[in-house]
C-alpha cells in the first residue's frame, strides 16, 4: 500500500496527520536548519504510552538523538513527574537542546475502524489504546468513583479520573474513544507545560511537540497529528510557536 493510500485512511479521522517517519525527518531538518544543531546534541524525552506497539513503530532515525528518556506510562501521561523531568534535563549537552515529544495514542485500523488495530501475529483486531478503552468502558457503566486512586492500579485510576471530569463531553461525542483521547491529550499537555516551567535546563533550547499518536495495523505503521510545536530560547526567553509551519513543513 502506498503512503498516500495509508494517509487517506487515517485522514478520515485525523485530516492533518502525517507519518511518524515524516515527522521525525521534519524535526531533524528543523534542528539542523533553524537551530543550527546536530541531532547528537539533542536529549529526547518522550511521554507516550508504554504499549509495545509504540516501541515496534518507533522510527529508527530517532537513534540520532540522545535517549529517549521515558516519561510516559499508560496512554502517555507523564507519570515520572518532576523527578523525571529534572533527571533528563541534567543529561542534556550544555550547547544542545531538550526535545520533549508527548501525547496519547489511538488506533485506526486499515479498514478505518477507530480505537483498534491489527497487531502482528494476531487473528483479529485488539484495542488501542487499551487503557483508554478500558477507562471509557467503566465511564459508560458508571463504575468510576470520584477521587478513587489506588496504589495497586495508580496509573489506570489516574486515566479514569481524567475521563470522569469530562464525562458528558466524552459520552455525547460521535466517537467517544476519539473524544476520550482528546481529553487525555489536553491533560498531558497541561502537565507537560507545568513540569517544563518548574524545571531548570542547562542548555540552549527546550523544544515541545505535542501530538495525537495514531497507530495502525502492523503493515501500515504509525502517524501523528501535531497539536503543539514550539521552542524556547533559554538565553533570550523567547518562545516561538511553529505548529502551523511544522504541519506544512514551512520553516
UniProtKB/TrEMBL annotation:
Residues 19-232 form the Limiting CO2-inducible protein B/C beta carbonyic anhydrase domain. InterPro entries: LCIB/C_CA. It comes from the Bacteria. This is Limiting CO2-inducible protein B/C beta carbonyic anhydrase domain-containing protein.
Amino acid at each position: 500500500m502506498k503512503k498516500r493510500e495509508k494517509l487517506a485512511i487515517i485522514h478520515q479521522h485525523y485530516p492533518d496527520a502525517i507519518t511518524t517517519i515524516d515527522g521525525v525527518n521534519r524535526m531533524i531538518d528543523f534542528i539542523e536548519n533553524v537551530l543550527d544543531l546536530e541531532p547528537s546534541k539533542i536529549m529526547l524525552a518522550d511521554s507516550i504510552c508504554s504499549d509495545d506497539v509504540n516501541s515496534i513503530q518507533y522510527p529508527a532515525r530517532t537513534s540520532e538523538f540522545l535517549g529517549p528518556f521515558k516519561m510516559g506510562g499508560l496512554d502517555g501521561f507523564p507519570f515520572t513527574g518532576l523527578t523525571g523531568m529534572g533527571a533528563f534535563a541534567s543529561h542534556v549537552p550544555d550547547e544542545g537542546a531538550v526535545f520533549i515529544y508527548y501525547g496519547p495514542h489511538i488506533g485506526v485500523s486499515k479498514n478505518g475502524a477507530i480505537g483498534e488495530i491489527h497487531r502482528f501475529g494476531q487473528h483479529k483486531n485488539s484495542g488501542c489504546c487499551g487503557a483508554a478503552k478500558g477507562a471509557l468502558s467503566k465511564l459508560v457503566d458508571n463504575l468510576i468513583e470520584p477521587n478513587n486512586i489506588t496504589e495497586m492500579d495508580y496509573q489506570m485510576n489516574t486515566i479514569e479520573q481524567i475521563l470522569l471530569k469530562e464525562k458528558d463531553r466524552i459520552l455525547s461525542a460521535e466517537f467517544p474513544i476519539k473524544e476520550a483521547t482528546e481529553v487525555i491529550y489536553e491533560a498531558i499537555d497541561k502537565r507537560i507545560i507545568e513540569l517544563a516551567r518548574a524545571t531548570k535546563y542547562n542548555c540552549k533550547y527546550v523544544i515541545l511537540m505535542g501530538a495525537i499518536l495514531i497507530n495502525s495495523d502492523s503493515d501500515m505503521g504509525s502517524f501523528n497529528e501535531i497539536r503543539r510545536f514550539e521552542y524556547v530560547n533559554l538565553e533570550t526567553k523567547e518562545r516561538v510557536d511553529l505548529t502551523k509551519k511544522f504541519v506544512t513543513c514551512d520553516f
